[in-house]
Design goal:
This protein is an alpha+beta fold. It has two domains: about 90 residues, Phosphorylase Kinase, domain 1; about 200 residues, Alpha-Beta Complex (Aminoglycoside 3'-phosphotransferase, Chain: A, domain 2), CATH 3.90.1200. About 50% of the residues lie in helices and about 20% in strands. A hairpin with a 4-residue loop joins β2 and β3. The radius of gyration is 20 Å and the shape is globular. The termini are far apart.
C-alpha cells in the first residue's frame, strides 16, 4: 500500500521521492513525511480506508482552509498546501521544522512561555477576522450556531452524574460546572475556530512558534470550544492566551463559560483515567482539584 501511495504522490508532484515514512496514524488519517530529490520536505495526510469516526471536514476542505490561512500571512505560520487529491483522498503540505509545545514546555523560561501563549491568543483572534461565516459556508466548513454543550459531552455528563462508583465531590463539581455553564449561554462569542487547538498542534523552534497545524476539525462556532484544551493543558497560564485574544479581537469572553466548558468537555477523559487507578487516577484527581479551584474562584 505504501509503495502504491508513494508512486501516486510522485505522479502528482512530478518529482522523485527519496524518503517516505509514516509519521503518525490517527483515528481518521495517516500522515506521511517525505523528501524529494530536489530537497522538498512535505507532510501528506491520507484518508484511512477504515476510520474510527467520521471526520468533521474532508481533507479537501481542510486543505482549502489551510491554504487560505497560509495566503493571509499570519503572525504564526500555517503550512503551504502543495497538492490536493481526491483519488486517493489526500493532500500534501510543506513541512515545518519544530517540536510540539507539549514536548518543549518544561524547557521554556516563564518569559518564553508567556510570549508563546500571548502569540497564540493573537493568532486565534486573527483567524476569526480572516474567515467569516460566509467564507466558512463557501468552503464547506461546518457552521455551528449552537450555544449548548456538544451532544456527546452532554450524554457523557448525564451518565457520569448518575455513576454511583464516583466520589460525591466529583459529581458535585460536575453539577456545579453545568449549572454555571447554563447561566452563560447569552455570553457566547462566535467566529471561525481551529477547534482542535492544543499543545500538540503548536510547533516550536528556537523557543518561538514555528507553525500551527491540523485544521481537520475547524468550524465557524463558539470560541469557548477553541480555548477548552488550552485551559486543560495550561491551567496556570491560559489567562495569557485569553488576555491577548481579547486585546486583538475586541471580544470580551466569559471566563466562567470558558472554564466550565473546558471542565465538562474533558470530564469523560478524567473519569476514565480515575477509574483506571494508579498514576492515571492520581493525574485525574489533580485535574479535578485544579478545576475545582478555578470554578470556586468564579
Amino acid at each position: 500500500m505504501s509503495e502504491d501511495l508513494r508512486g501516486d504522490i510522485e505522479k502528482i508532484i512530478k518529482e522523485k521521492i527519496t524518503k517516505f515514512e509514516l509519521k503518525a496514524s490517527g483515528f481518521v488519517n495517516n500522515a506521511y513525511y517525505l523528501e524529494t530529490k530536489t530537497g522538498k520536505k512535505c507532510i501528506v495526510k491520507v484518508e484511512k480506508e477504515i476510520q474510527e469516526f467520521t471526520p468533521q471536514n474532508s481533507l479537501v476542505i481542510e486543505a482549502k482552509v489551510a491554504q487560505k490561512l497560509y495566503e493571509s500571512n499570519l503572525t504564526i505560520p500555517v503550512p503551504e498546501v502543495i497538492f490536493v487529491s481526491q483519488d486517493p483522498d489526500m493532500y500534501g503540505y510543506s513541512f515545518i521544522e519544530g517540536d510540539t509545545l507539549r514536548n518543549v514546555w518544561k524547557d521554556l523560561s516563564e518569559e518564553e512561555r508567556i510570549d508563546i501563549l500571548r502569540n497564540l491568543g493573537y493568532f486565534h483572534a486573527q483567524i476569526g477576522k480572516i474567515i467569516s461565516k460566509q467564507n466558512a459556508n463557501e468552503m464547506g466548513v461546518l457552521v455551528d450556531d449552537s450555544t449548548g454543550l456538544h451532544l456527546e459531552v452532554l450524554a457523557d455528563y448525564h451518565l457520569i452524574i448518575s455513576d454511583e462508583s464516583l466520589p460525591k465531590n466529583m459529581i458535585d463539581l460536575a453539577q456545579k460546572a453545568k449549572s454555571i455553564f447554563d447561566t452563560t449561554l447569552d455570553q457566547s462569542v462566535f467566529q471561525f475556530i481551529h477547534n482542535d487547538a492544543h499543545h500538540e498542534n503548536v510547533l516550536i523552534k528556537d523557543k518561538k512558534i514555528s507553525g500551527f497545524i491540523d485544521f481537520g476539525n475547524s468550524e465557524y462556532g463558539e470560541t469557548a470550544r477553541e480555548f477548552s484544551r488550552y485551559i486543560r493543558d495550561f491551567p496556570n497560564h491560559f489567562q495569557h492566551i485569553i488576555d491577548s485574544y481579547e486585546e486583538e479581537s475586541n471580544n470580551k469572553l466569559s471566563l466562567a463559560r470558558l472554564i466550565t466548558n473546558s471542565f465538562l468537555s474533558g470530564l469523560i477523559d478524567n473519569v476514565e483515567d480515575y477509574k483506571k487507578g494508579g498514576k492515571d487516577r492520581v493525574n485525574a484527581e489533580k485535574s479535578f482539584d485544579a478545576y475545582g479551584k478555578m470554578i470556586e474562584s468564579l
